[in-house]
Amino acid sequence: MAQYMFLLYDTEEFYDNITAEDWQATMKLHNAFAEAVEAAGASLFGGAALEKSTTASTVRQASGEPLVTDGPFIETKEALGGFYLVEAKDLDQALALAKLCPAGNVEVRPVMDTGEGSTPPA
Amino acid sequence: MTSAREIARVVDEAHRGHWSTVLASTVRLTRDLDLAEDCTQDAFVQALKTWPDGIPDNQAGWLTTVARRLALDRLRRETTLWRKLPLLIEDPISPGEVEQPTDPLRLVFTCCHPALARDSQVALTLRLICGLTTREVAAGLLISEATAAARITRAKKKIAAAGIPYRIPADEELPERLDVVLTVVQLVYTAGHVAAGPELTRADLTGRALELAGLLVRLMPAEPEPQALLGLLQMTQARGDARVSEDGELVLLADQDRSRWDVRLLAEGVSRATTALQQGQGQGHGRFALQAAVSGLHVTASSWDETDWHQVVRMYDAMLISWPSPIVALNRAAAHSLVPGADLIAVLAELDALSNEVALKSYAYLSAARADVLARLGRKEAAVQAYDEAIGLTVNGAEQRFLRRRRAALTED
């Protein structure tokens, strides 16, 4: 089993006019997703929704003194809106689960092994 | 003792014939592509040393056993890997059962995983399935050696880090995974068919592509597209001898001596294409079925002029719907120019519109097609210029000489 981070990217316009019913419906979709992961024999290690990207601050450490700026790290039309940490058999299972994930775009990234005896990424 | 030269020949033949089987079986054990590749290479080196004392009856089995044993030794020596070994091994070597006939297919589906970039899929397939060196991969794909090496390395890293599995996809996943695999197999064939440099073809690549297409047909007998691809490749292969003249020059389909075509292979290809078209009846034909249909129209016509160009254009029109690509549009325009009484001015407009396509910017066939239409319209000067463009764009010696001859014919009289 390997761990994969699902990064959920969506346009944020959705939140601007959302009704209470739509919000409840969306939360139901996420609950269904969590159940689908367990049903597939994979497991959910964590996850969270994120506040809107307008609430983000960035600490830039690339050159010298850390610099605090407002806004997310990169400006894109789609913003990181949440994440899941999923343990799956292999990439195929992770991708199959990502297809069930209620989000516009899901980036699937393997989690690096940083345990004792781990080697730097090749 | 067999002579060293004879052994070298036998091992070289075994390399071409069994490389992917040995590698694929070793990957199944190690789950580590680099390690499996090293050990497979070492197994062939050992064959060079050991086979002079007696060539084994089952060469593939011998090579597989050696490669897998070398891999296990290496894994045992590396303690960190040894710790993980129980997780890595799916099935430890059991005597008598080292090879599974489906191993090469697993490797193909790994190399062609949709999570890998298309460029990397092709480079990796040529390297791992066809056993080409990085230099040969670069030559086959007309890219620099450094680019080829980078693509292969990147793809291998992603397979390892992202956990791309080594398996044949489940039945319900096959259709969506199949298209990529078929495309890559076709590209392997094409890389062999229009090899760079003075040689026009590389028989090992075309042969391997035919083999892979055959394996896919056996894996999915009810699917029309693998049938269509195999039929298409067989029909192309059947025309191979007629494609090059006695003095090594390229001969276009239009000018080929049809009596030199391999009748038996042609019949098999046509029959497969027909089967694919029947299987796909009512569900909309895939692009390989349509390509095979075009090829079938060519090979069943008694001559180039007798080809049913109306029908060819119709096939390309259907292809443009399921597969809108500038290359298909170019082929359509070229076929359109050959329909009896075609409006050549309209064809030229079609071709000119395509010259804005980024994908065709350095594609010699577009310039060559324009040159041909311009020549037929009597616009010699523009035609010569278009031939010059085409000559500058191709790196294949035989193609260059062909285009120079066409250009020379224009300025002769």
Automatic annotation (TrEMBL), chain A:
Limits of the YCII-related domain: 3-113
A Pfam short name: YCII
Name the UniProt record assigns to this protein: YCII-related domain-containing protein
Protein family according to the UniProt entry: Belongs to the YciI family.
Organism: Kribbella qitaiheensis
InterPro entries: Dimeric_a/b-barrel (IPR011008), YCII (IPR005545)
Top-level taxon: Bacteria
From TrEMBL, chain B:
Keyword field contains Transcription: yes
GO biological process, any: DNA-templated transcription initiation
Family annotation (Gene3D superfamilies): 1.10.1740.10, Winged helix-like DNA-binding domain superfamily/Winged helix DNA-binding domain
InterPro entries reported in the protein's UniProt record: DUF6596, RNA_pol_sigma-70_dom, RNA_pol_sigma70_r2, RNA_pol_sigma70_r4_t2, RNA_pol_sigma_r2, RNA_pol_sigma_r3/r4-like, WH-like_DNA-bd_sf
Keyword Translocase attributed: no
Transmembrane feature ranges: none
Record-annotated DUF6596 domain positions: 177-275
Keywords: Sigma factor, Transcription, Transcription regulation
Domain (RNA polymerase sigma factor 70 region 4 type) ranges: 109-159
Domain RNA polymerase sigma-70 region intervals: 23-79
GO molecular function, one term: sigma factor activity
Family of the protein in this entry: Belongs to the sigma-70 factor family. ECF subfamily.
Protein name as catalogued: Sigma-70 family RNA polymerase sigma factor
Source species: Kribbella qitaiheensis
